[in-house]
């Protein structure tokens, strides 16, 4: 019984150290603009834009997959704020995104 407990503790320690190392070296940095644009969208997740939800649309806008603003229920002031934010805030690659209203 003691042998099984020691083996499980050792196995847990080894796997924990492995996960810690993996977290440090395999981390993927997300573009912070996606979170900002997603917070400015109405977050109805209606799918009217053709994407699964507002966060998917925000990611598509930041990744330049869309060239026109596709969120129909978004208010005009928030729409312009998103367009201005993407036009004036460069991403990690140093480039901005131009979205037509």
Brief synopsis:
This protein is an all-alpha fold. It has four helices and no strands.
Give the secondary structure arrangement, pairings included:
Layout (H helix, E strand, L loop, with lengths): L1 H24 L6 H9 L13 H9 L13 H13 L13
Helix pairs in contact: 2-3
Verbal overview:
This protein is mainly alpha-helical and 101 residues long. The chain is 54% helix and 0% strand. The chain has helices at 2-25, 32-40, 54-62, 76-88. Helix 2 (32-40) packs across helix 3. It is elongated and about 70 Å long. The N and C termini lie far apart (69 Å).
List keywords for this structure.
single chain, 101 residues, mainly alpha, 4 helices, 54% helix
Oligomer: single chain
The ordered H/E elements are HHHH
Beta-strand content bin: under 5%
List low-pLDDT spans.
Answer: none
**Largest β-sheet summary:** none
On the 0 to 100 scale, the average pLDDT is 92
The rounded distance between the terminal residues' Cα atoms is 69 Å
Supply the helix-strand structural class.
mainly alpha
Q: Determine the number of helices (DSSP H or I, runs of at least 4 residues).
A: 4
Annotation, overall tally of beta strands = 0
Helicity level, as a percent range? 40-55%
What's the alpha carbon Rg, rounded to whole Å?
Answer: 21 Å
Query: What general form does the structure show?
Result: elongated
């Amino acid at each position: 019984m003691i042998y099984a407990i020691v083996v499980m503790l050792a196995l847990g320690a080894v796997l924990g150290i492995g996960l810690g190392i993996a977290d440090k070296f395999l981390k993927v940095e997300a573009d912070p603009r996606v979170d900002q644009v997603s917070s400015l969208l109405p977050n109805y997740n209606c799918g009217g834009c053709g994407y699964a939800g507002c966060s998917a649309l925000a990611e598509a806008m930041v990744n330049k997959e869309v060239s026109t603003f596709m969120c129909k229920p978004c208010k005009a002031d928030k729409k312009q704020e998103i367009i201005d934010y993407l036009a004036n805030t460069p991403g990690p690659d140093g480039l901005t995104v131009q979205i037509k209203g």
